[in-house]
């Protein structure tokens, strides 16, 4: 992997996001608004809300991550930057990894930071908040990595946004189950560590598998 | 012209090894279900400039993309010296490909855009070198302007400033580099091309702005005309 390309792409994407701060905050706003709709929809019963809170937070985080995926490669593809990036020696992997890392920093990390707030809003007991936080900390990078594959596969297609969601959501189901399950386990008086361990294993698998798949899809897209 | 600013760096102690030749062996190119051309043989040696000509839709850009390694030919081989160009790190580090898109980001300044491209391709991205390159392309005072507020010609100049960063012999593959340039910009690009060939670099370019006059031929300009190559029957000439 070309480290110089990784650093150049990562720092450029953060700089571009900083120049468009309000746009970068939209997924977080969606996350907060969507999750706070649930008390209005299912009613204010604290018992019900407490039960569904981990799942609600996780599903909303998943959807927020997917919503921010379509422009990940589309802008670079349209203005010719992607071609230039892929021409550099050994750059495919570096571009895929840097893009996923930048996406997580810009969209994933704020979701993780906001999650405890939503947990409190939904009446989650305080001992479950760190578990919810930890599960999202492990889980949102998985979403960024898988989303990168989806974004690369749908590059140049019309209605890419919807296709990304349809491609990535089934792949993200294990992360959702173990992520939401970790907090539910605490609620049931069990240890969350098996769930978190499995989530960590998923993250490692995605770290190894997703960037090469993304790089291959990008090469096909520019051809 | 600001021709002096780039030569301020001390010369490398040992001369770089000579640039390999680019060899196109029996290339055929397909785009969709149409054969654009076939049976293309060509060699581009160090110091040469090859002007790719052909009508619209004859596959000039497609051939440049084949050479750059962004697409694979239908048949035939593209060699850098004796090695294939695909997945060839040495070739990748000696190639400068500038497409008709400028690969600039609206939200970055001219200097930031150039710095990004230089870093990605392993070129000198120091502030001094970047400034010298932008000044060379007549962009003095515009280094900190976001590229979105630059005109088409100025954006082209920012993209071409990459050429002014080059110090080693390389293969330049340029898709319509003269497009949108004014007289001064055209003269700068000609000077960059001449300096590049003088240090042993080779150039493959398309252009509607070159002229095949006696002066150009004397300077070693060669022409590759895609209109003369066989293509699919049934396509009106």
Distance between the termini of chain B: 43 Å
Q: Could you tell me the number of beta strands of chain A?
A: 0
Helix content of chain B: 25-40%
Tell me the Rg of chain A in angstroms: 18 Å
What does the main sheet of chain A amount to? none
Q: Could you tell me the strand content of chain A as a percent range?
A: under 5%
The quaternary organization reads as heterodimer
Q: Give me the secondary-structure category of chain A.
A: mainly alpha
Number of domains of chain A: 1
List keywords for this structure.
heterodimer, A: 223 residues, mainly alpha, 9 helices, 0% strand, B: 237 residues, alpha/beta, Rossmann fold, five-stranded parallel sheet, four-stranded antiparallel sheet, disordered N terminus
Structural summary, described in words:
The complex is a heterodimer of chains A (223) and B (237). Chain A has 223 residues and is mostly helical. Chain A has one domain (3-222). Chain A contains nine helices and no strands. Chain A has helices spanning 3-19, 21-42, 46-67, 71-78, 81-87, 92-121, 129-153, 160-187, 193-222. In chain A, helix 6 (92-121) packs antiparallel against helix 7. The two termini of chain A are 21 Å apart. The mean pLDDT of chain A is 93. In chain B, helix 4 (127-136) crosses helix 5 (152-165). Chain B has helices spanning 60-68, 89-94, 110-120, 127-136, 152-165, 183-198, 214-218; strands at 22-31, 34-44, 49-53, 75-80, 83-84, 95-98, 171-175, 202-206, 221-225. In chain B, strand 7, helix 6 (183-198) and strand 8 form a beta-alpha-beta unit. In chain B, strands 6-7-8-3-9 form a five-stranded parallel β-sheet, sandwiched between helices. The longest helix of chain B has 16 residues, at 183-198. Chain B has a domain at 20-104 and 168-228: Rossmann fold (3-Layer(aba) Sandwich), CATH 3.40.50.300. With 237 residues, chain B is of the alpha/beta class. Chain B contains seven helices and nine strands, in the order E-E-E-H-E-E-H-E-H-H-H-E-H-E-H-E. The termini of chain B are far apart. At the A-B interface, helix 1 and helix 5 of A face helix 2 and helix 3 of B.
């Amino acid at each position: 992997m070309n480290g110089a390309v990784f650093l150049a792409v990562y720092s450029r994407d953060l700089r571009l996001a900083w120049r468009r701060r309000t746009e970068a905050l939209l997924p977080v706003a969606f996350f907060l608004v969507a999750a706070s709709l649930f008390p209005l929809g299912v009613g204010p019963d604290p018992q019900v809300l407490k039960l569904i809170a981990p799942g609600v937070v996780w599903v909303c985080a998943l959807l927020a991550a997917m919503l921010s995926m379509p422009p990940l490669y589309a802008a670079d593809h349209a203005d010719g930057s992607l071609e230039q990036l892929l021409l550099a020696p050994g750059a495919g992997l570096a571009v895929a990894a840097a893009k996923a890392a930048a996406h997580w920093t810009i969209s994933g990390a704020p979701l993780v930071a906001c999650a405890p707030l939503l947990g409190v809003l939904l009446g989650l007991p305080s001992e479950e908040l760190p578990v919810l936080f930890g599960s999202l900390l492990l889980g949102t990078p998985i979403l960024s990595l898988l989303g990168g594959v989806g974004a690369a596969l749908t590059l140049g297609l019309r209605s890419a946004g919807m296709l990304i969601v349809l491609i990535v959501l089934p792949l993200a189901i294990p992360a959702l189950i173990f992520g939401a399950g970790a907090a539910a386990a605490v609620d049931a008086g069990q240890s969350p560590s098996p769930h978190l361990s499995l989530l960590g294993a998923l993250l490692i698998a995605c770290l190894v598998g997703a960037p090469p798949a993304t790089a291959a899809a990008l090469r096909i897209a520019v051809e | 012209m600001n021709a002096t600013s780039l030569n301020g760096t001390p010369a490398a102690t040992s001369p770089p090894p000579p640039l390999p030749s680019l060899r196109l062996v029996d290339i055929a190119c397909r785009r969709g279900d149409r054969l654009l051309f076939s049976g293309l043989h060509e060699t581009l040696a160090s110091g040469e400039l090859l002007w790719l000509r052909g009508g619209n839709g004859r596959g000039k850009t497609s051939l440049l993309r084949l050479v750059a390694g962004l697409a694979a030919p239908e048949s035939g081989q593209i060699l850098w010296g004796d090695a294939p160009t695909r997945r060839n790190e040495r070739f990748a580090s000696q190639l400068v490909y500038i497409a008709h898109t400028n690969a600039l980001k609206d939200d970055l300044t001219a200097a930031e855009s150039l710095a990004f491209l230089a870093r990605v391709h392993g070129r000198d991205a120091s502030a001094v070198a970047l400034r010298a390159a932008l000044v060379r392309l007549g962009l003095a005072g515009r280094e900190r302007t976001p590229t979105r507020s630059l005109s088409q010609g100025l954006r082209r100049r920012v993209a071409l400033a990459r050429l002014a960063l080059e110090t080693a012999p390389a293969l330049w593959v340029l898709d319509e580099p003269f497009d949108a340039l004014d007289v001064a910009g055209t003269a700068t690009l000609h000077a960059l091309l001449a300096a590049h060939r003088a240090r042993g670099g080779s150039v493959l370019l398309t252009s509607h702005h070159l002229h095949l006059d006696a002066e150009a031929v004397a300077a070693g300009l060669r022409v590759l005309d895609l209109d003369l190559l066989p293509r699919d029957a049934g396509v009106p000439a």
